[in-house]
Amino acid sequence: MAATGKRSLLAQGLIMTEELANHYRRIIQGLGEDPDREGLRDTPRRAAKAMQFLNRGYTQRLEEIINGAVFASETDEMVLVKDIELYSMCEHHLLPFIGKCHIAYLPNGKVLGLSKFARIVDMYARRMQIQENLTRQIAEAVQQVTEARGVAVVIEARHLCMMMRGVEKQNSSMTSSVMLGAFRENQPTRQEFLTLVNGR
Ligand SMILES: [Zn+2]
Prior knowledge:
Elements: H1 2-30, H2 43-54, H3 62-66, E1 70-72, E2 79-90, E3 96-106, E4 110-112, H4 114-125, E5 128-129, H5 131-146, E6 150-159, H6 160-163, E7 174-181, H7 182-185, H8 187-198
């Protein structure tokens, strides 16, 4: 039964790719190009698959990606994971924003496997997003999984919608932060985090 379920999910995925590809074909036409010329012939399918990949976070669930990698620990010192690469898609223009995410937490009897921070970032980044919401979703997920005394997340990102169009400001970046628990309530804790993040 499970196999049948999987097969039909796969079939659904393929139908979805074909549908998306048809839409891309129209977009290419709508932009004045000929989707049948040689260089563009496979583009609608490739673009559809790329967009599905860039939005695969919608199909993931937090429990699945964590997969039990939460471990008992006595440590109560700040844990900081810096410079996690981040690729997301601006929901206003469907153009990428690219940057780095820094996550800190204050363990409360449990620690999370290191690779899982990157998985959490990816799960929320691979969707249509605005940076502010993405920052909060990552912080809340880490809080939920670790039940930490506090969680802090900073994202620094450059938005292609700003760099390639509109104001065309190539060198501007945006920083967003969310502080939960002790990072919000305790100024020295917050300061320690910001010093560690900024001290390169
Ligand atoms: Zn945008």
